[in-house]
Amino acid sequence: MLLSDFDYDLPEKLIAQTPVEPRNASRLMVLNPADETIEHHHFYDLQQFLVPGDTLIFNDTRVMPARLIGHREPSGGKVEVFLLRRIAGDEWETLVQPGRKAPEGTVISFADELKCEVAGKTDFGGRIVKFHYDGIFEEILDRLGETPLPPYIHEKLEDSERYQTVYNREAGSAAAPTAGLHFTKEQMEELKNYGVNLGFLTLHVGLGTFRPVKTENIEEHHMHREYYSISDETARLIMDTKKRGRRVVAVGTTSIRTLEAAATAENEIAGRSGFTEIFIYPGYSFKIVDAIITNFHLPKSTLIMLISAFAGREFVLRAYKEAVKERYRFFSFGDAMYIGERAVKK
Fold first, then answer.
1. CA 94 to chain centre
2. Which CATH number does the domain 67-144 belong to among 2.40.10.240, 3.30.70.100, 3.40.50.1980, 3.40.710.10?
3. What is residue 210's predicted lDDT score, i.e. its pLDDT?
């Protein structure tokens, strides 16, 4: 398939710059791929599309204060270092801007207590750096680092916790699993009391989020690997849900990728951890995921390809066209989609 097959026109004014309050006041477009119908609701209406026994699977990763601003020694030139993934110990995979001025051996100072040295390059144009510091690295990072926002968000975020889910607990991401930003603690409790199961896994969002697809033939695109972990408890919950004939609803594309990476067969999954490079595009056969909660994604992105694999490319693009017509808000702080057949309430 061609990259141009996943393009659509989006007015810039529809790119959400700030989150709505409360979180679940965002709009919810409901897609049923079986009959290709589209409905318009709000996120607080989500319960009406679920039944007791369904299982929501959330990615509990937490966004790191991953952006560090420093200066090269001894020239004093300004440098931005964006943390992507801890390799081992004090070595990290990063993006450095301007990268051309950060060859191997470059020392970058952020404060008296924190410096790093460029130790090498990555396959994707990033840099491997080794940090040197006085104290506890995580505490220093909390003080000196900034929570990164996607480049299409130009307004200042007053509360950095609005770029975190309310259920985050495992620090390690370079970006938020944005489908989960719509949930409030109260709504999650209401769903639990209604009989919906809440399960958790972890995928630390990395470089793949920022890398555009550059190959016209999408099958030639290579996904950057990301660390994931799914517990035995969550795997058992999913298997029990399947055995009872209920649905596994993935909250966000990161949850989808983790569930499908950990699948051992159709409707079977195991607790495991490791790295995944799974690339899901039309033609993929889903093994675990029955329904999806997601945001609206960038044109030509691997995320819109993933959603197209689940719901059909033409139907998804028609839904996006309607979302533009109805003035939905797009991307990280934008509105949401629920994709799946209506559950039969018994």
1. 18
2. 2.40.10.240
3. 63
